[in-house]
């Protein structure tokens, strides 16, 4: 990456119809003066004028120099908004103040290096404008001092234009994820946090701000997404000085990030998009994801999942008949859901015992897997690798592998607890048992479920918080399994759509959008999920006319039409179809 002359005062990054102008003029902290519409080949003098105009006037009753939003802003610099970095050394060395020491840039990338020699810290700010016009930014802090430095918060921000005064985000619950809500961006901070160890059904996939009344087709709008699958914070803030901005970062639990000398921590990537309407904003996300080398490129196989057809009732003749009926109507992938492994006759036991239950499958899974493949379909299998039932051989043998902060177990959910994948032995066990199953059968697809929040998630009684480490361990496990089994596709499911983010979707092949298959309910869910997620990565299934999750009776044509917007599949006992239905 080229190093720019030390007298460079304004950086103009351009790509994909997007411009970012960064003000580097002397006597001010580096700051983004513009993010949005392409400014073309604007002359340097024009860019300097734009940057200068973005500076703030002195405010009566305030500091002698009003401090604006910089790319790295802290309280010691005079910045009164949400800071980029908060941390300390055993309650001391709290006043980080960074000075720019180096910068490197190309036409579409910028890297700024900062140091604080007094506090013995350094920081790195990385920004890239991609070919899709998406802005990708992250912040890194490094401890250069002798003592441990505890990071409490590390955020990355993007400014908003003055007229972005209405915000949109999403909320929800199980069976109704990503329902939109709007309100005015007033003075103060609108914060959305997830403390669930995953984004959660109620977390917002996107936080957007735009001109009042912006819609899908018209109205300037800027939005941000945090590509992270653990605890998260995303916010929109408006200052009395008139500045407003979007920001996000991982939400660290107390004492979770302790940097020894020479260690560093990076924030998750903040992905920013903009457009004249939400559709244009969404296109940038879709183009960005489709450009990845690992993005699915072959036509998406029509998928049948067995859950609502049989639930835990795993009987080979029924499952064979289901496979025959599926093949006859054009299904291309058959996924055997929960219930195939040891002790798993309902959802109260067996999680963690990832061995085929020989009382139900005396011949192993070969009879069903081989039959499915012989019918010309791919065979998929359900796992929930991050979870464990207390009623399991695994939990009885290794109670120390369960995440907990106290002697008693955390509150249960679906009668299960969370397996500490940051524990090396637990990680090795899960990796091995899944690898053994993948090697034993012709499995081309894994439905990877995650059915509970992480609460009181620590490394045993009196132990440190482990949500950050758990998230990284999950990423590593998925990466290693896919590397060891080329061609394997993985679906991210989490009580339906409770873990939908571009961190998990950078290493999986689709998400299960919601456990609710009611087409009426799914319309809003799918529309707002698609603001960030390409439709081909969203699992959308046709279901029985009498919908299991809502009890509503719907027409087959409506259910099918709604499911065709994404990765189409079926969640239904298709052996019961009439000739008219088929």
Mean pLDDT: 96
| Radius of gyration from CA coordinates | 25 Å
Q: Which class of secondary structure composition applies to the elements? A: alpha+beta
Q: So how many helices? A: 10
Task: Give the overall shape.
Answer: globular
Largest sheet: 10 strands, antiparallel
- Provide the β-strand percentage band: 25-35%
Count of β-strands: 30
Distance between the termini: 58 Å
Helix content: 10-25%
Q: Uncertain runs with pLDDT below 50, 5 residues or more?
A: 1-6
Provide an overview of this structure:
- The protein has helices at 44-53, 278-290, 307-310, 316-328, 366-374, 393-397, 424-440, 467-484, 519-529, 556-563; strands at residues 10-15, 18-23, 31-37, 85-88, 99-105, 109-116, 121-129, 135-143, 149-154, 156-159, 166-173, 176-184, 188-194, 207-210, 220-226, 232-238, 244-250, 257-259, 264-266, 270-276, 303-305, 333-336, 378-383, 387-388, 417-418, 443-448, 489-492, 510-512, 538-543, 567-571.
- Helix 10 (556-563) links the parallel strand 29 (538-543) and strand 30 (567-571).
- It has 582 residues and is α+β, with helices and mostly antiparallel strands.
- The strands form 6 sheets. Strands 5, 6, 7, 8, 11, 12, 14, 15, 19 and 20 form a 10-stranded antiparallel β-sheet that branches. An 8-stranded parallel barrel has the order 21-22-23-26-27-28-29-30, surrounded by 4 helices. Strands 10-17-16-13 form a 4-stranded antiparallel β-sheet, with no helix packed on it.
- It is 19% helix and 29% strand.
- The longest helix has 18 residues, at 467-484.
- The protein is globular and about 80 Å long.
- Mean pLDDT is 96; it is low at 1-6.
